[in-house]
Recover the amino acids of this structure.
């Protein structure tokens, strides 16, 4: 993993609509021609897809980790994210994701 800041300036329209962190993530993903962008905010995901980027969210990343045997279960991680990190996820989405990996 490498930590980098984007080099180019984002179009002004992006800077007004999106959070600065999302704008930088999009700029960097375009700059390095990323295969996949980890982004959870819906506005950022919509803009990323409009720009031709493939996206995944945190829950999708956890599902991938479980499917690849990196995590034995994602429920404890989701519970920690919600309680300890105050990471917001809708109950319906969490139940859908947990059900998809046999943890429903």
């Amino acid at each position: 993993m490498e930590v980098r800041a984007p080099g180019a300036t984002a179009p002004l329209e992006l800077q007004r609509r999106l959070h600065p962190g999302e704008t930088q993530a999009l700029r960097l993903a375009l700059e390095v021609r990323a295969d996949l962008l980890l982004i959870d905010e819906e506005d950022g995901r919509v803009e990323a897809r409009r720009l031709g980027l493939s996206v995944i969210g945190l829950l999708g990343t956890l599902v991938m980790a479980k499917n690849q045997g990196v995590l034995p279960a994602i429920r404890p991680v989701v519970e920690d994210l919600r309680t300890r990190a105050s990471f917001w996820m809708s109950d319906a989405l969490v139940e859908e994701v947990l059900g998809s990996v046999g943890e429903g």
Notes: Residues 12-56 form one domain. The beta strands are 37-38, 55-56. The chain has two domains: 12-56, 58-100.
